[in-house]
Amino acid sequence: MKILFDYGHGGSDPGANYRGRKEADDVLRLGQAVAKRLRGAGVVVHETRTKNETLGLGARVKRDKADKYDYFVSFHRNAHSPEKARGAEVFTYPTASAKAKDLAVQLQNALIRVGFKDRGVKVANYYVLRNTRSPAVLIEAGFIDNSDDNRLFDEKFEVMVEGLAGCFVDLKVACGKS
């Protein structure tokens, strides 16, 4: 299996931020931890960025189209209005393949098991979902502007990494239960 991980934002685009915490940093940390776990299980994981650097949406899609991947996974943290919204959600494109939809459900279930409120699997017309060739999903790992979600993100980080990684190690088994 070969996967392309995309860590949203970066460099001059920190993404959402709250009380000094930056989305670009959180998703890089999370995605790289999942990638490390997967590599240890023999999965090939490529990354759109490996440090805090600026990378446009076109470059992210170009990277996907430069090789053949089983999945394209974009990591994000959500934001709305401080302390007003919470929970995790995973997005697919409206015409996503069954493969992408199945992965989205597995990833969402892994995030819910960590303790995030279930905001569901949703569809969206996001650039990276619309323009990638690989089956694509976009993860929103809690709200960065919600203290409870940040506490879950930090305190259950290893559990979250194991659960998300489990979705790729064996997609026929529920995340985190392989």
UniProtKB/TrEMBL annotation:
TM stretches of this protein: none
Residues of the MurNAc-LAA domain: 61-165
SMART domains noted in UniProt: Ami_3 (SM00646)
Recorded superkingdom: Bacteria
UniProt keyword terms in alphabetical order: Hydrolase
Name of the protein described by the UniProt record: N-acetylmuramoyl-L-alanine amidase
Organism: Kurthia populi
Lineage, opening ranks: Bacteria, Bacillati, Bacillota, Bacilli, Bacillales
